[in-house]
């Protein structure tokens, strides 16, 4: 059966209209159904500004407080090594012996010269003592007195020179017995027994190195962005120091029980690595910590004033960045936030919220921006840092003050102390 083209067009139009009417009816039903549902229930908490103790953690490496090169001061054949390589030695312990006979002979010769000079001096002094009273009674001429005085002065000068020569000879003899300049671990020998040692030679005079390990240093580096962030916070008086101390933990997790102090913070940024070199010093009386160990340096004693902590569960990651749901006038509102460091189950807030504002920490996925919500007060996560607890970054998480994509964040590096000397503060300000 053939249908006229006009009739067919009318039929298709009618079907389209019917479809639109049905769809509109369905949408209206859905809106009515949605309107009939009660507002979703969400858990909220009010953000508060509070003082937050901050702990900074960095990767560092230990180093002896002094690494002293032991060099020969006299030349000669190396006759003896008196220590075991790698052994702990005390200051003054014998390390090496350089053939001493030549220097013993020089001492004996100097002693003989001095004895002669002493005898001449004694005779000249006696002569002068005899002439002086005679000259006072005009029994001898002035020339006789002047000659006696000159002989005395010459004898005294010769005696002084002889004493100096003897002292020099004894010093050189003492140098033949090379002792430890400081207490510490003596490294390997650089010259073996039987070799000719040449004093004054850069290569030929080095015998060994002694590393002093009490006290011991822990060197670490502060990323320059973090360092500048700390300085900025200090200038704003938001970052204050409250008895800064340092502590180290070893590679096996052992925490060293001695607290240290920050003794050095460089005043320049390394152009190659973009870090600020820093150093903590620790007493090491039991020699527990060895040089060259990789350690984790933890800096405590900084307080961030009026800080706001945002629970991680309240943060929504979007293509536009980090967001939180704020409840205002009974309605949900998406709020962009600038987050800083990650501490436990919370983030430090850089900006985006004001104290007293209520954010959703439970049921945020149910809230629709601009739509009403029902609220109930919720408690912050139990693991969130409390104001009286030190805050420490999680393993592998950003550290305080280092700018990241959102504002602040950090990588392992370095930091300073209030117990340190002038100029060695974490904030970078000179005391």
UniProtKB/TrEMBL annotation:
Looking at the record, the residues that make up the Multidrug resistance protein MdtA-like beta-barrel domain are 215-299
InterPro entries given in the database record: MdtA-like_b-barrel (IPR058626), MdtA-like_BSH (IPR058625), MdtA-like_C (IPR058627), MdtA-like_HH (IPR058624), RND_pump_MFP (IPR006143)
Ranges where the Multidrug resistance protein MdtA-like barrel-sandwich hybrid domain occurs: 66-207
GO MF term list: transmembrane transporter activity
- Which segments constitute the Multidrug resistance protein MdtA-like C-terminal permuted SH3 domain? 306-365
PANTHER family named in the record? ACRA/E-RELATED COMPONENT OF DRUG EFFLUX TRANSPORTER (PTHR30158)
Low complexity biased stretches: 400-425
Hey, what's the signal peptide range on this chain? Answer: 1-23
Instruction: Tell me the segments the record calls region Disordered.
Output: 375-431
Q: What is this protein called?
A: Efflux RND transporter periplasmic adaptor subunit
Instruction: List the GO biological process terms.
Output: response to antibiotic
Subcellular location(s) of the protein: Cell envelope
Name the protein family.
Belongs to the membrane fusion protein (MFP) (TC 8.A.1) family.
Look up the coiled coil feature and give its residue ranges: 107-172
Keyword entries, A-Z: Coiled coil, Signal
What's a Pfam family this protein contains?
A: RND-MFP_C
Superkingdom in the source lineage: Bacteria
Q: Where does the Multidrug resistance protein MdtA-like alpha-helical hairpin domain start and stop, copy by copy? A: 107-176
GO cellular component terms, semicolon-separated: plasma membrane
């Amino acid at each position: 059966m053939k249908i006229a083209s006009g009739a067919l067009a009318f039929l298709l139009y009618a079907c389209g209209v019917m479809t639109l009417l049905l769809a509109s009816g369905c949408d209206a039903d859905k809106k009515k159904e949605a309107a009939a549902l009660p507002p979703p229930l969400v858990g909220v908490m009010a953000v508060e500004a509070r003082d937050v103790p901050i702990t900074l953690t960095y990767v560092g490496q230990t180093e002896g407080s002094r690494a002293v090169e032991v060099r020969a001061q006299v030349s000669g054949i190396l006759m003896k090594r008196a220590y075991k390589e790698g052994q702990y030695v005390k200051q003054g312990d014998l390390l090496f012996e350089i053939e001493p006979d030549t220097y013993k002979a020089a001492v004996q010769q100097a002693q003989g010269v001095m004895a002669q000079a002493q005898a001449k001096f004694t005779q000249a002094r006696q002569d002068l003592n005899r002439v002086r009273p005679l000259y006072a009674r005009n029994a001898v001429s002035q020339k006789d007195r002047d000659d006696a005085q000159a002989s005395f002065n010459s004898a005294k000068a010769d005696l002084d020179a002889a004493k100096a020569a003897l002292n020099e000879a004894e010093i050189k003899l003492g140098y033949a017995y090379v002792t430890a300049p400081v207490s510490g671990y003596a490294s390997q020998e650089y010259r073996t027994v039987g070799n000719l040692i040449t004093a004054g030679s850069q290569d030929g005079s080095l015998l060994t190195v002694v590393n002093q390990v009490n006290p011991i240093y822990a060197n670490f580096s502060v990323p320059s962005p973090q360092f500048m962030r700390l300085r900025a916070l200090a200038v704003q008086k938001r970052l204050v120091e409250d008895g800064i101390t340092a502590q180290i933990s070893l590679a096996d997790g052992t925490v060293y029980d001695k607290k240290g102090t920050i003794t050095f913070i460089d005043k320049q940024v390394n152009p190659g690595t973009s870090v600020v070199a820093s150093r903590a010093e620790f007493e090491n009386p039991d020699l527990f910590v060895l040089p060259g160990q990789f350690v984790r340096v933890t800096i405590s004693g900084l307080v961030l004033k009026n800080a706001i902590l945002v629970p991680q569960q309240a943060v929504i990651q979007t293509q536009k960045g980090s967001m939180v749901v704020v409840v205002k006038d009974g309605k949900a509102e998406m709020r962009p936030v600038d987050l800083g460091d990650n501490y436990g189950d919370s983030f430090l807030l850089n900006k985006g919220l004001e104290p007293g504002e209520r954010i959703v920490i439970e049921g945020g996925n149910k809230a629709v921006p601009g739509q009403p919500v029902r609220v109930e007060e919720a408690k912050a996560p139990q693991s969130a840092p409390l104001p009286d607890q030190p805050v420490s970054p999680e393993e592998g998480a950003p550290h305080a003050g280092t700018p990241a994509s959102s504002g602040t964040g950090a990588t392992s590096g370095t930091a300073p102390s209030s117990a340190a000397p002038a100029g060695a503060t974490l904030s970078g300000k000179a005391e």
